[in-house]
Amino acid sequence: MSTKRFFETASPQNIIKTKLVAKYFGGWATIMLRRLKYPGDRLAYIDLFAGPGKFEDGKASTPLWILNHAIAHPELCKRLTTVFNDKDSNHAEQLQVEVDALAGIERLTNPPQILN
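Above: the chain's sequence. Below: its structure in token form.
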């Protein structure tokens, strides 16, 4: 399947992936935040197949879900570092547009890195 078709609509597999990450990321982050000892300690989330951020049907994909979750949690805003990569430069550019448009994105101490 080409990556262009993959991001047209949220397929059941896409929805399951995002639900799994959403379900476990919050718990993982809560546990890991308790283990940080020093003010400069950080958590990292890296997605090497990030995509454009939203499917053509408007549903957010995993990177936007992760960032929205972090924005809603003040301690994660301070401690989370995110790196999103996609081999398709159009996807990386679109993801940057979507990330820049997120309400509250400025609360993150470590701005998301979007790579191609």
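The chain has a mean pLDDT of 89.
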